[in-house]
Amino acid sequence: MNIGIDIRGLEPGLYGGVSEYIRTIVPLLVRYGTEHHFHLFYSSFRKKDVALSLSLEGQDNVTSHFVSYPNKLLFLAERFNRLKVETLINTSFDVFFSPHIIPVSLKKESPHIVLFHDVSFERFPSFFDTKRRLWHTMVAPKRQAHRATYILTPSRATKQDLISLYHIDPDTIEVIPLAAREEPRRRKPLLQSEVSLPQKYILSLCTLEPRKNIVGLIRAFTLIADSEEMRDTHLVIAGGMGWSYGDILREHRDSPVASRIMILGAVSEDMKYELYKNALLFVFPSFYEGFGIPPLEAMNAGVPVISSFSSSLPEVVGDAAILVDPYNIPEIAASMHEVVRDSQLRSELQRASKLRAHLFSWDTVAKNTLAAIERVAEGE
């Protein structure tokens, strides 16, 4: 079976967890689909050897295809039904999988599976800057959903969003939850500049952008920072700078406890696991998530978790975390204070975190995704 996979989500500059998903799922699909041949499609005006980043060199059942067309041109080609991928790379597909919503022009006989990670751009357009709103206008997600043969989503919440917002047939949408990546058995030694962390800290890890509610988190920490139980506790915020993050930096600057709030920016994979391992508590007060891998990663590290109860997050953390209203700053603050203060509660949450995280695995994600690809290819 010839399976096409669009790996253009690895393009630098595309935000969110799409790149991480592709880097994780594609090698697993190749491993479990040994009887199939995988054709990886990538386009860019300037060539980048992205296939190497997937560590698939030497795999007999993988062929990488590169075309030098700008993706904006391919967006237009899809709109006008031109520049078919099959023609561009001289290959036919039994099925084509897009692990993102980047438009692609395919022949009618090629079944097309599209993964919608979330529809935050529909639910909260005000959280996106002009550049990203324009990008979503060009991509036309609703059009992608209606043209797809089959749709995958990581959560029931996102499936329901697609049904209610785009009026998609529920029978053509399958939910395949994601998982946390396992900590590497061998990690590189951290640089001295990476290990200067406070002894006690509350951690949050995400791309810095309005939807993640980091402003609310800083305000919540500021409310309780001077209490007796919190005086030696810091707030550490890690993650790359996304967009419209000016309010986050101002809130940090203006906080009376700014010296105990660290904004690290993007961190290495090794540093990320170090942060999880030593955190007293992980807080994820996001307004909306299509799935929410960071709280699951924290749980996998045995860290107590406070999460907002919005969108898909209750599906991810279950009853193993404390759920809060992301709009209620005093509630977030009180929950953080209680977990820091109560060592028995922390121990209970640590045990629950580990048990919850073990319910999710990337092997299961890959096997279920491959099964869906095979069913669609066979016309089921």
Automatic annotation (TrEMBL):
<feature type="domain" description="Glycosyl transferase family 1">
    <location>
        <begin position="198"/>
        <end position="354"/>
    </location>
</feature>
<dbReference type="Pfam" id="PF00534">
    <property type="entry name" value="Glycos_transf_1"/>
</dbReference>
<dbReference type="Pfam" id="PF13439">
    <property type="entry name" value="Glyco_transf_4"/>
</dbReference>
<protein>
    <submittedName>
        <fullName>Glycosyltransferase family 4 protein</fullName>
    </submittedName>
</protein>
<dbReference type="InterPro" id="IPR028098">
    <property type="entry name" value="Glyco_trans_4-like_N"/>
</dbReference>
<dbReference type="InterPro" id="IPR001296">
    <property type="entry name" value="Glyco_trans_1"/>
</dbReference>
<feature type="domain" description="Glycosyltransferase subfamily 4-like N-terminal">
    <location>
        <begin position="15"/>
        <end position="177"/>
    </location>
</feature>
<keyword id="KW-0808">Transferase</keyword>
<dbReference type="GO" id="GO:0009103">
    <property type="term" value="P:lipopolysaccharide biosynthetic process"/>
</dbReference>
<dbReference type="GO" id="GO:0016757">
    <property type="term" value="F:glycosyltransferase activity"/>
</dbReference>
